[in-house]
Design brief:
Strand content: 5-15%
Largest sheet: 5 strands, mixed
Order of helices and strands: HEHEHHEHEEHHHHHHHHHHHHHHHHH
CATH topology of one domain: Glutaredoxin
Length: about 475
Amino acid sequence: MVLVALAISSCCKPMPPPQISTDAEPEAPPRIVPDCEGEPICWFHDDYPAAIAYAAQEQLPVVVDIWAPWCHTCLSMKHEVLAAPGIEPLADRFVWLALDTDVEQNAPALEQLTVSSWPTFYVVSPADESIQARYVGAASLAQFREFLAVAEAGHLDAIEGGLAEDDPRYLLRRAERAVAAGELERADALYGETLDAAPEDWPRRPDVLTARIATRANRDDWKGCAELGLAEMERTGRSASAGDFCFWATHCASRLESTDLLREQIHMRALERLASLADDDGAPLSADDRSDVLRLLREVQHATGDREAAARTAERQRVLLDEAAAAARTPEAASTYNWPRAEVYVFLKRGPDIIPALERSAADLPGDYDPPYRVAWVALKTGDHDRALVAASRALELVYGPRKGRVLSLIADIHAARGDEDRERDFREQALAHCESQPAGHRSERAIEVARAALAAMDDPPPAE
């Protein structure tokens, strides 16, 4: 109240005439600055042009964190790696930009910096916006520091020259640019050249192997992907990259004919590799990373018919996630575990037990669409259709960008479960229209295909068993 009174009193006093200097130099344009918010890293948020302009001003490369609110690995990286004390010495050597892939204004940047898995990190040089490095998925602090070192070397090389054409860092830079350009077959070959040129103990070998196998999967080379998985699974280290590599190997193996011996070989090798990684208490894995390893181990166990082992692994995963959520420092950090907890509780047929925790998360983060979306998903899975519809409607009020199509589809699923065909059709049509309306950087042909198939299935349902 005192401050308000002082402000009113001041505004009512007569002001002296302004002093005008006839020889003053024109003011320089205001400097662009990022938002520090008391964190070790100062970030730009959802403003690619501003980050590039500031980087050009400071002559520094730009780290681009491409993330989404629904991505648990993105949140884990934010709270476990990008906020770690060990990142601070590197903070001033880069400009840092976070791009939420659901925000409409980020669509043009996502045409240039393509993303097929979340999170994806790029480092670009501001002068020509050329890609110097790329990293996909979770990383330990040591891995992320090495990624930044390779990126910085590429940036300096772009300015000064100096990297030989057979240097693995030079070859890797070419591979990552090929991926961003959609030239996946060329990227595969360049990843191979990179790995051949690198020393056996090169710190980036695990994540480059993972990038290579993902490239084969993304161009539907199931056989080549599975063959690479079998050949290189033991060379992916002890970090999250090892789990990601196993994921791609088993994913590709599942696309092979059931009689293909390679499929069985991949499953057996993955069981050994994942079990070893899950039991390695010294591995540099976050709780989220370790949960992913356990989830994948459980899925392979289930696929190979060992249901009892899968249940034991799921229970182990559940305990890990509950402890991690309880220990989280903030509601946002705790929300990292919402999706994996929802999924494992449903697998264990305990879905109703996790709903109160998800509803608390929704209350703690009232502007976040993801917690109510998770409530709705679990409620649908457990037959609580009224609760599911209320939560999904709340998510629809908050959601934005491409993710809105997923929420509309979930609401259609809820109406289908309720037997309301008219409402189901309405929301399936809305979901398809939304997916088709997205700008180029947000448009997903796969999402359009799925939405169109779901709508078509209403007119051509599968035969009753």
